[in-house]
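Please describe our next protein:
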Amino acid sequence: MDPARARAMQVALGQAATLAAGDPLPPFFHQLYFWTPEPAERLGRDGHPKVGGVIPDMGLPRRMWAGGRLAFHAPLRLGVAAERVTVCEKAERKEGRTGPLAFVTLRHEVWQGGAACVTEWQDLVYRDDPDPGAVRPVPPVAAADEEEAVERSFDATLLFRYSALTFNGHRIHYDQPYAREVEGYDGLVVHGPLLAQHLMLMAEAALGPLETFRFRATSPLMHHEVGMFCRKGRTLWVRGPDGRMCMEAEA
């Protein structure tokens, strides 16, 4: 696990580049590793690898990272070889209020030194292209009783850097015409894992080393919006500028 990559993430997140070989990896920084590069002909229209391997093809084009859960068993150490094992735990198609949906749950186990250090469940949702005439669902309203809050903004450069560091080719994060015209967003979408990353670091700073963390995306945050990252005890959330809940989490 190359320390240089972790230091680059620190800088992208606005931190000092302090990590070195032997240091424990901050929570969720394992997203920087275990890339699976594919040639251009193996990519879908959205820039992600085509489905049909670990993730079955259920005929729906739009992919979203809906949330996840993590269990931290032991620290991952920088400068030490590690392995990730991935299995598809669930893949099912349902009819929702806005049309067909497919739900996929991947389980990732990250091993180092012969021991499982992190178990992560990644929840993905696939859906059809947006109907321009459909009424958009109303997102939940976020609480305003936090005991700690940090305001954060995300520009196109940061989204590009995070995409590069995590080898995430999804065009909704860097291709504004695609995000608007094909997937129907108001601008570039801030990565759900990037929101979760800030919440995990906030939780760790307040509560100490994390044992578990879960998060769920409820509304996308756009690159032109300012988000409020909030914590009350072990509950955390991201509030959009209009008061909507963008992500909820528990540490």
